[in-house]
Design brief:
alpha/beta; Rossmann fold; 5-stranded antiparallel β-sheet; 39% helix
């Protein structure tokens, strides 16, 4: 960990953006801002350790942290990620308790640090600030307990090309769909002639909400710089490029970074994705199949990478599974996009065909046609293990799937299943 000089205006902006001190005003707020200093930690370094006494709280200026806890069985579990303008370590300081989690840097990170002693002295001088401050803290805790866990917004998203196509147009199309956020697209030529490209990237990150960095196809200095600054790394492939590891993935320095944070796959296609072959060659956190010429597909990708995706979860129920088509049609008519589908039993059958066709009306028609074929009636089995053998059902499901693997469906899909053997 090392210190850096802070800009008072930048500190003031960070204090305002984090929201934790929104109810503190007047002289107390001015003194609070003056109490912060700046610290920098590097990828893999530990900021705080579970069980240690709290001596400070932090606001992330830029970078990304990961919080983990040691569970009762001794394993380490990830409980969250902390990104730009978020606060970390405040609860232990306020309650004078030990740290509840270990926090490490996922990438080089700069933070504004408020010592616990400075906070305590500030409260003694301005006791009136404690009640509104505590109100904000309690509200944040209540919201965290009742609202779904949402990961920190990735401030720097890196696109690693694994295709011969130029990604500039695709990146700008994605930036357009990220219109709710201040987004900039940068590539190698934008950094040319700059004395300190790393500092330049950090300053851009400090001004913008999202930076889309297009890496080079080769492991150049620009590519390595992009990976060092990445909150989210995406390998961008297409349905014609070979699935073998790319030069960036084979480079030792780049490969080390790819092993430090999760890597995602964006499969660009025009009709039939080829994600399966790519997933067999590498460890991928998640993948999204995207038709770059389809506005709705690029919109779906934007929601996925910013943690705003809509996932439809369908339960079982035999013939009652047909009701799921009505739900899908209602969502479609209401203009609610479905970005992913999870199903079990009948819900998995309906969900799979919805993920393939994306049109609930056409999906329902195909399902009815298959059901009316009545072949499933010849599948009855004298009840020894189950009522039906499953052979006709399996054949029918393969026909409904049109030979596609789950990984290659246009919409992300998962089925709940178990192996009884």
């Amino acid at each position: 960990m090392e210190r850096f000089d802070v800009d008072p205006d930048d500190v003031a902006r960070a204090v305002d953006e984090c929201g934790l001190f929104a109810s503190v005003d007047g002289n107390a707020l001015a003194e609070l801002r003056d109490s912060f200093d700046g610290v920098r930690i590097f990828t893999g370094e530990t900021l705080m350790t579970q069980g240690e006494q709290a001596e400070e709280m932090y606001i992330v200026r830029h970078g990304r942290l990961r919080a983990t806890v040691v569970t009762s069985n001794g394993t380490e579990a990830v409980v969250g990620e902390i990104g730009k303008s978020e606060v970390v370590g405040e609860m232990a300081v306020i309650t004078d308790q030990t740290r509840s989690a270990t926090v490490r840097a996922m990438r080089d990170t700069e933070l504004y640090r408020l010592p616990a002693l400075a906070f305590s002295q500030l409260v003694q001088r301005h006791p009136g600030m404690l009640r509104p401050f505590a109100t904000v803290v309690v509200k944040r805790l209540r919201d965290a307990m009742t609202a779904p866990l949402r990961p920190a917004l990735p401030a720097t998203i890196v696109l690693v090309p694994a295709t011969d196509d130029d990604l500039v147009d695709f990146a700008h199309a994605l930036a357009t769909e990220l219109a709710d956020f201040d987004t900039v697209v940068l590539r190698a030529q934008d950094a040319e002639g700059r004395d300190n490209p790393a500092a330049w990237l950090l300053e851009i990150e400090n001004r913008m909400q999202i930076s889309l960095l297009i890496a080079d196809r080769e492991p150049t200095e620009w590519t390595r710089l992009c990976l060092r600054h990445a909150d989210r790394i995406n390998i961008v492939a297409d349905d014609v490029a070979p699935s073998a590891p790319t030069p960036v993935e084979l480079d030792p320095a780049c490969r080390q970074r790819l092993e430090e944070i999760p890597v995602h796959l964006m499969m660009l296609h025009r009709g039939r994705p080829n994600s399966t072959a790519w997933l067999r060659q590498r460890t991928i956190e998640s993948h999204v199949n995207v038709d770059p010429s389809d506005h709705s597909d690029v919109s779906r990708l934007a929601r996925v990478i910013t943690g705003r995706a809509n996932v439809l979860v369908l339960g079982g129920g035999g013939a009652r599974g047909f009701a799921h088509f009505g739900v899908a049609r209602a969502l479609d008519e209401a203009g609610v996009p479905v970005d992913g589908i999870i199903g079990t039993s009948a819900g998995a059958v309906v969900g799979g065909i919805l993920a393939r066709l994306r049109d609930p009306v056409e999906a329902q028609q195909q399902m009815i046609a298959w059901f009316d074929a009545t072949r499933w009636r010849r599948d009855f089995n004298p009840p020894s293990v189950s009522l039906m053998s499953g052979r006709q059902m399996s054949t029918g499901l393969q026909e409904l799937g049109a030979g596609l693997r789950i990984e290659d469906l246009p919409v992300s899909f998962a089925a709940v299943s178990c192996d009884l053997v």
